[in-house]
Amino acid sequence: MPPVAPAVAPSEAWAAYRRRVAGLVEQYRALPAGSPVRLAKRTSNLFRPRASAAGGLDVAAFDGVLSIDPDARTADVQGMTTYEHLVDATLPHGLMPLVVPELRTITLGGALTGLGIESSSWRNGMPHESVLELDVLTGDGRVVTARPDNEHRDLFFGFPNSYGTLGYALRARILLEPVTPWVHLRHLAFGSVAALAGTVREVCATGTHEGEPVAFVDGVWWGPQECTLTLGSWQADPPPVVHSYGGQAIYYRSVRARSEDWLTVRDYLWRWDTDWFWCSRAFGVQRPGVRRLVPPRLLRSDTYWRILAFEQRFGVKGALDRLLGQPEREAVVQDVEVPLERLEAFLEGFAREVPIEPVWLCPLRSRDPGRRWPLYDLDPDALWVNLGFWSSCPLAPGMDPDHHNRWVEAEVDRLGGRKSLYSTSFYDEERFWSLYGGGDYRRLKAAYDPDGRLLDLYQKCVQRR
Ligand SMILES: Cc1cc2nc3c(=O)[nH]c(=O)nc-3n(C[C@H](O)[C@H](O)[C@H](O)COP(=O)(O)OP(=O)(O)OC[C@H]3O[C@@H](n4cnc5c(N)ncnc54)[C@H](O)[C@@H]3O)c2cc1C
């Protein structure tokens, strides 16, 4: 097991947290009524273009773990703590959060309010499903602690998928689970989506594959004729070989090249971050000559975000493409969920309509089918598959600039799926609220942000205000 870290001095950390909360409430109340409220965060994984965070609430100090209880397997974590910092604090105790999103700078608060998923989601659901309680700075300037069984229970269950429009998460107590030092990976290759789906169903029902217990499941669709499924198992004994994908080696290529592999648990958790899944190829850093020159500390998703933010601000690439007579392109960056039995139908249409490969696949099931999360209500008895695709497509002359994104949205709807709201959406207001818990949301808005200090969910996610 990894070495056990010395206990944190929780009383000091908690006292500092309370002072910080009081300061933030003052900051919030001092904002002139009617002025827009935003979080001034250093990092973001939101793809929708948004107004600058300049002048927003300064929440930088809310990054850090307050305390860890290794016996109860819980952690009290501030809302702006990045998963990188969270994992750094829990691993020395031989523990990790039940779901660790793939990108290092996703924060706990961002994953709770904007949802998250990873290869443990087939047994642990989404990050909000392992929260025990939550401190929220609400739109009306109060700080409340929401639990599943207290007077703020509706906020507790309505917070996931509210995207900071009911309030901001300042602290959460979350469950942790034990880790082993290594993870054993088996990469299984399939010639059809139907065959992959059959194995996903079997593994998620039994929790084993060919006699070996499985802890993690995710996959990649490389195109209509090829997909891979990666099964991760806990490994306590030293493996024959340990690979690392934080430097020259590129993880997503290894999935096709190897049939099995071993990683340290930390490298496993960040396996997708180094090359932003595969998206770093757009920045040239997968070419060996370039990669050798880039310090490994810069091979991480937030570096690529910074480059992208620069591009979005100044439109350098678009201008260059126009100069060279290249066709206009549409960014198609989406995560969607469909029931496992519709996976094949979705990918069949996707292959025809949206020229993007690869696609990340990740099964997902409710951790506790007795609980409902009204703003992102997935059938708790179904096995879902998340599909992530993050690229761009050429637009034919005369094509609607959102052509492919609109096709994805309509197809997900037709197949009874659900779309994450971190990127562009086009629903009309009536359809949007019927999908994302309009009735519950209106009641929560009236209770926690009656004067509309924060945007509402439709304004934020569809109208991109
Ligand atoms: C290309 C791409 C790939 C992605 N891949 C994955 C993935 O593989 N796995 C995964 O789990 N997720 C993924 N996501 C989604 C990501 O987890 C969500 O967008 C998440 O909300 C980002 O969190 P953040 O901390 O970076 O928050 P930000 O991007 O800064 O903010 C996201 C939203 O949450 C609000 N918010 C932020 N912090 C708080 C808080 N403390 N309280 C209340 N509201 C808050 C913000 O106002 C904003 O509306 C991906 C997103 C993109 C763009």
TrEMBL record:
Transmembrane residue ranges: none
Keyword terms: FAD, Flavoprotein, Membrane, Oxidoreductase, Transmembrane, Transmembrane helix
InterPro entries: Cytok_DH_C_sf, Diminuto-like, FAD-bd_PCMH, FAD-bd_PCMH-like_sf, FAD-bd_PCMH_sub1, FAD-bd_PCMH_sub2, FAD-linked_Oxase-like_C, Oxid_FAD_bind_N
Chief site of localization: membrane
Record flagged with keyword Membrane: yes
EC number: 1.3.1.72
Residue span(s) of domain FAD-binding PCMH-type: 7-179
Membrane topology label: Single-pass membrane protein
Compartment annotation: Membrane
Keyword Membrane: yes
Pfam families with a match to the protein in the record: FAD_binding_4 (PF01565)
Protein name from the UniProt record: Delta(24)-sterol reductase
Species of the source: Acidiferrimicrobium australe
